Write the structure tokens for this entry.
Amino acid sequence: SIDGQRLWDTLMAMAEIGPTANGGSCRLALTPEDAAGRRLLLDWCEAIGCTWRVDRVGNLFIRRAGKRDDLEPVATGSHLDTQPKGGRFDGILGVLAGLEVFRSLHDQGIVTERPLELVVWTNEEGSRFAPAMVASGTYAGEFAVEDTLARRDADGVTLGEALEACGFAGDLPVGEPRLDGFFELHIEQGPVLEDAGESVGVVTGVQGMRWFDVTFTGQSAHAGPTPMRLRHDALAAAARLIDRLQAHAMADASGDTKVTCGCLDIEAASRNVIPGEVRLTVDLRHVVETELDALQALFERELAAAGETFGVTVSQQRIWASPVVEFASECIAAVEAATRAQAVPWRRMMSGAGHDAVYVSRVAPTSMIFIPCRDGISHNEAEYATPEHCSLGAQVLCDAMVARADR
Amino acid sequence: SIDGQRLWDTLMAMAEIGPTANGGSCRLALTPEDAAGRRLLLDWCEAIGCTWRVDRVGNLFIRRAGKRDDLEPVATGSHLDTQPKGGRFDGILGVLAGLEVFRSLHDQGIVTERPLELVVWTNEEGSRFAPAMVASGTYAGEFAVEDTLARRDADGVTLGEALEACGFAGDLPVGEPRLDGFFELHIEQGPVLEDAGESVGVVTGVQGMRWFDVTFTGQSAHAGPTPMRLRHDALAAAARLIDRLQAHAMADASGDTKVTCGCLDIEAASRNVIPGEVRLTVDLRHVVETELDALQALFERELAAAGETFGVTVSQQRIWASPVVEFASECIAAVEAATRAQAVPWRRMMSGAGHDAVYVSRVAPTSMIFIPCRDGISHNEAEYATPEHCSLGAQVLCDAMVARADR
Ligand SMILES: NC(=O)NCCC(=O)O
Ligand SMILES: NC(=O)NCCC(=O)O
């Protein structure tokens, strides 16, 4: 069984690389801090006899040999990069729990049939290079290697240049090694488990997500002398859309419809000027693809209606779409069996957030394990998961991996 | 009668001081550009024998002698400062039309009974030092001199320091000279006259205005895993408030209710993060004070309801209130008589925007003259009024002033 204290100590040690003022971490992808985090992990892994390789987009594959190294490995992993003011658990837990699995097996002298692989996926957060999960997506064939290497950060540095600069430009062809299966442990990043008093989520898939950039173009004018009937108020139209989308999502008793408007920018805003142009982001999610289609259609209708009501021109662009993912039943079953053995409250659930497992699931049988995080908060220095829950998640991960590797 | 071409030439010459890329002007209050504009005006006025004084908050009083210089002067004026990307007419027309009145009387050898006074009020726009109309407000006793001098711009420079630096710190006590009457010519800054095909607005008063800073405090959380029912979405609450206020204002068939939300800021916005804090500005206007009270009460109720619906804490602060102004009937009548003499389509109307005349009207009989501006646009480089309308407005101003000065 795994050593929860040791796992916690590695989490806290990793958090010291790129520490932030309020107890979080800042390790943007492929910065010196991200590289230092990877090297710390590699030191720990080499100490227990693991070997490692890096592919052309910087994905790091750390192998623990099995009895049959000719077979494809059973893998785990997540990411070590963080948001600018990120937490100590999002991604990191999934990587360090993999390390803890390796260490525990090492301590107990256990060698699995199949080799095990711990993967650190590059740039999951998407904070430095958009979009999120770009390197696991490249591994799975969703993005072309050259395109990924050419993506630029806000300073114009390409992902390829950043890889060279930080020493993690590898030569392993992207897509190798092929995996027999992939398990990812992650904090839930939402409040569902905590709210229900449950300790483990057996993740059966990931909801579909679609991202839109919306522009409302009206006419800016002075707030005082312009009659309501002659206005073309871009913010009024945006507010109408937001309100209608919220009302629709809140009316769905199943709770499966999710709508979020995260960014709203008014061009040249001033308190006594009617907004002439507003840019809004819309994030639509649903666990059923056809329902997501219907939600998008509703969004398009409400957008057109809001524009018409307020005499405002509207346009929208869908900039990302991630279809509903259903994980492999055999991997879900392995996680469920390992969870049942712990005799804690648990549930099957869909992931609300995208994870590297979304893309990996296209090329290997995959599932995920969630543990609760305090107040559902993540992407925030205040992100927290208890040592007990981290330990529990790592134990479930260990048991699921060993079961699959030895099947 | 006044010389419309000469007026237009002075407007265009003034616009060359602090010109902007797209044909507007940038003369923020008490900058070197603003001072250069004032000096150009003073050169023109001295050339026709005027004298001038500056009060302690930089208001500039330029006098044309009358037959009875022991009597209080009949005054006109407006402001020379602009928005950062302002136009060539807002404020400037009111000042340069006053100059044109003086020049025309000078050319024709006319001396009025009472002296005439052309006033350049400091910092009307409020772009550099908040609030707007602060120096005419100080003249009228609304603000204390020391408070006005201590107001700071975004760089921390006080209004008093800026006055010294630009050479317009005067020693005339604020509140002097007392005025027999005040007429202000201004572009409408709205589309009403243009929309109706009318050339002059006889301004009978100014609608009441109230400004609010509103804060919505919810809880930021990840857009994906957070169920709608557990959200505290600050933007959803703000959108609900905006939508309800818009619906209320648009439903007022009289057109007298005006609501504008000009600024909306989301704290640490990200497209997949539920907004945790939103700051919104609300501008409420009405021509009837008791209706404005009712509008504020409605705003407060809708704000509370929006907060409750979305589980968001709300707070608001009223940062400015300007009561409904009714101009002096004798001054309105003088403007109306001068307008009728021109045989053009005109209307009586309330001003939608605040002007220096709002505060001056508390201490002297006052009214205003509006001319149309293209598409109702102001506070914008594209602001435009035709030479014909400028000339017409200046003629009405001249006739109203002379009639009062000789009454
Ligand atoms: N885990 C995570 O934050 N992924 C980013 C994509 C998403 O918004 O779900
Ligand atoms: N004329 C003008 O823009 N005044 C500022 C105050 C207002 O918003 O009405």
